Amino acid sequence: MTDAATNTPLLSVEDLSVTFPVRGERAPVVDRVSFAMAPGEILALVGESGCGKSMTALAILRLIAKPGRIEPHSRVVFDERDILRLKVTQMRALRGAGIAMIFQEPMASLNPVQTVGDQVIEALRLHERVSPAAARDRAAEIFERVGIPDPRGRLKAYPHQLSGGLKQRVMIAMMLVVRPRLLIADEPTTALDVTVQAQILALLRDLREELGMAVLLITHDFGVVNELADRVAVMYGGRIAEEGTRAEVLGAPRHPYTQGLLRSIPSLAHRGETLEEIAGTVPSVGLWPAGCRFATRCPKVFEPCNAEVPPAVRLSDSHRAACHEIAHEVRR
Amino acid sequence: MSWVSNIIVALLVAGGAYVWIWARSNRLWREAMRALVRRRRFALIILGVYVLIGLLDAVSWVGGDGVQGVAASEARSVIDRIFKPSIFREKSYSEPFAQVEFVGGAALTFPGQHVLGTDILGDDVLYKTLKGVKVALLIGGLTCLVLIPLALLFGVSAGYFGGKIDDAVFFVMSTLASIPNLLLLIALIMALGKGTLQVCFALGITGWVGLSRLTRAETLKLRELEYVQAARALGVSHPTIVMRHILPNLAHLVIITFALLFTGLVLSETILAYLGIGLDGSWGRMIDQARNELSRDPVIWWNIVAASSALFILVLCVNLIADALRDILDPRTLRERP
Amino acid sequence: MLAFIVRRLAFGFATVLGVLFVLFVLFFAVADPDDMAIRAIGERASPETYAAWKRNHGYDKPLLINPEYDWTSIQRYTDTLLVDHYERMLSFRFGRSDSDDTPIWTRIREGAGPSLSLTLPLFVLGLIVGITLSLFVAFFRGTYIDRSVLVICMLGMSVASLIYIIGGQYLIGKLLRWFPISGFDPDPAVIGRFLAIPILIGVLAEFGGTVRLYRTVFLEEVNRDYVRTARAKGCGEIRVMLRHVLRNALLPIITNVVLAIPFLFIGSILFESFFGIPGLGALTVEAINGNDFSTLRTIVYIGALLYIAGQILTDICYSLADPRVRLGAEASA
Fold it and tell me: For position B334, what pLDDT does the model report?
């Protein structure tokens, strides 16, 4: 789609850091992450669990729960406003209306004692002055749009009466009823059956076309990335390792971590070849190495990796990777 | 009877030392103890002082210093020997540090030496308050010592074996739990008669159900865990599984419940004391005896203030420690994270 | 749902039978009728007097087996104290007091009113104070407001209820002289004057424990995913607390609360005897002091009966308040 660099971005995240206290010190879970998104674009944020991708998403909505904290040097600019410096009331108006978010567990994410209709209507009436009757109509409309059969009847259902796929459709309906310009989808299909996953992904793609909203897709599943994303950012240890268009990152990965990650996916590995794995395990927060976070597991590690944070190397207008090895190569 | 309480003291000290050594050898418990000491240093010190006073009051022997007015065969504790209550006394009320009697103004035998004054019979209030420490620890501690093994036995066997045993235990627990606590307590003491053992027994009967329910539920969960299932599949015997895998995982529950029960028991004894079925020498009894003194003019406040402060400080310390223990040992509370 | 209620009722009835057995053991086997006769009329009476007393109070049969009948006769096993005890209790014929011969049922009926007039306002006020304060504290979780309220609760929990009553009575009634310190008059115009102190003190004595309990319930809900969803769609903190957290937290609170309702009839033993309110609590104290076993037995039985009823009610309430349980049967995929 549109290249983020050429247009004014819809969202630009600059130097975002989120820290948590670990044994008396504040350990970064997200460490100076920067990226930008153009209007209507789908950016996939990919990584193993614990790499900070969900924290990045929550930080954009300022939903980091205590004792977590967004460090003050961070900037998150949405629609030319720095949302980390908005007043609480302004932020509230932005949530749901400007930026909305759907979560991994549709069951836990819906209020169990309210009907799904009431929850969708609440989302609508928080942002628009609508009469109760009109709000019901709008809710039924959006239910129909996200493919919920018998939308009027389903408004009166409680979450536990719906299947996992329907619940996720309700979540999507609730978050899209005010037509936000950016939807953050945090592992929207992980908790669902494979067939339902495909339906939800198709729905998200259709809705993007129709509403022209941007989607920040958080996932660990390259199948989902391949299906949906325009651009991809790979995170490791709270930092972005590699970022580029889908073709660049999936077709010609440069960062050793991305390469290892792609080689370890069964469907993408070539038949007959042994499936590779990345040696070692992810170090836990607070025990990360000082230089490159991937240094302890990287097959291409050399001296500067352990000491210095790797610079982001521009490989094309849209492709960059943070790796000493690549920097070394380019310089030569 | 003095040798009984001396033996109990020896057993308690030995048991305490054993638990201490054992807990130090286990890394998890050692860290928990460190965390507790770091967070509740002050409360632990005060509790230690209480326990020390209680132990000093429990060690007793016959004869020795030849104080007048004491039967030759009467065993007296360390606290008794320090205060010499048969001599160190007045005729009636005197204010703390008073030089003269409260009513009438006659000169005192020990002017300025009664730190907390004297009561209607002329007994030193500080001495009576210190004597109350042992009674309070007895109510809380002795009852818990009876109650916890009972609760564990029923709770663990119901949870572990399930089936008919579980049904039976569950029915007994529901039956006892459906009689309001205080009423059951009163009924038990009325039927059994008044006295230390009876009261502790009654408190134990009314108290075990709560802990038993907790341990039953927890055992049900533990029984289904993979490593317990694996141990079973390997043919490990039931007693071994219970000792090695179930009981150690209930320890945190038992410790927290013990602390909470302790305060509950000590506090409910005051109600029993008011109803006239409490223990001799308890703070509840002191409060009950002193409650009419507040309506006198000028008011006699030192009796009730001494007893209730001693009670309040002990309960507060144990509550604070229980609270910290729950934070440290119960991982559920550690979940307050995204 | 119906099957559930029937099963629940059957278990409740079994528990009632169990309670009656406990009472039988305590009041007939452990403290036997001879004991009671001695405690009631003293140690020096003639054997005939004891026998007459036992006959008058219905204690003259053998405990489990009646040797007067042949072993083939069913009456050998039914004409006993055990069967009499079950029969009388289950048919609510409680008989007369062991100490003053008044009908027990009348005394209990008379006592329930004054007891309720104290405990009901105390209960409602305590609940309102507890929930509001704990919601407030949960809203400010992690701040110094939260921490200082927790400290106050901890201090409050560590004071014996006896001290609350003695201290409160002294402070409000004697030093400040706002209200009379004790007495009772059912006339609605003046009843408030007599109930003011006990209610004030009661709320004060309770709030430490309840606020801490409800706070943990609220905090558990605050950390749930659906609360995050509510925030993500733009709910303000206050709306999140009132519409989402409070409604979900009410379920566990209801369980706690419905269970307490039956106890309202029993009243508060301490409060009633201290403030001279002629309720069931005061009747209990009277029974203890007068060695009145039959009255005590009846009060314990009624207390247990109300508790069991309350439990059944709680289970039904719970299933009505929670759509997951209420609609559980018709859940569709």
Answer: 37
pLDDT digits (tens, 9 = 90+) for A249-264: 988 898 999 988 888 8
Phi, psi (deg, nearest 5) at residue C187: -60, 120
Long-range CB pairs of C203-206 (<8 Å, 24+ gap) are: C203/C122, C203/C125, C203/C126, C203/C129, C204/C156, C204/C164, C204/C168, C205/C156, C205/C159, C205/C161, C205/C164, C205/C165, C206/C126, C206/C130
- Average pLDDT, whole number, for chain B? 82
Number of neighbouring beta carbons within 10 Å of residue C287: 26
The predicted model gives B40-67 an average pLDDT of 83
Token pair belonging to B34:
């460190």
Q: Are B222 and B228 in contact (CB under 8 A)?
A: yes
Contacts of C233 in chain A (CB under 8 A): 95-96, 100, 122-123, 126, 174-175
Instruction: Name the pTM for this structure.
Output: 0.80
The answer to whether A103 contacts C229, with C-beta atoms less than 8 Å apart, is yes
Top mean pLDDT of A134-138, B77-81, C263-267 is at A134-138
Residue A240 bridge partners (DSSP):
A235
Residue C230 to residue A65, Cβ atoms within 8 A: no
Phi and psi, residue B333, nearest 5°: -75, -15
Q: Cα separation of A92 and C187, whole Å? A: 54
Q: Would strands A69-70 and A182-186 be described as parallel, antiparallel, or unpaired?
A: unpaired
Least confident of A258-267, A297-306, B207-216, B291-300: B291-300
- A14 φψ region: left (φ > 0), alpha (ψ -120 to 50), beta (else): beta
pLDDT band at B335 (very low <50, low <70, confident <90, very high): very low
Radius of gyration (C-alpha) of chain A in whole angstroms:
21
Contact call for B276 and C288, based on CB within 8 A: yes
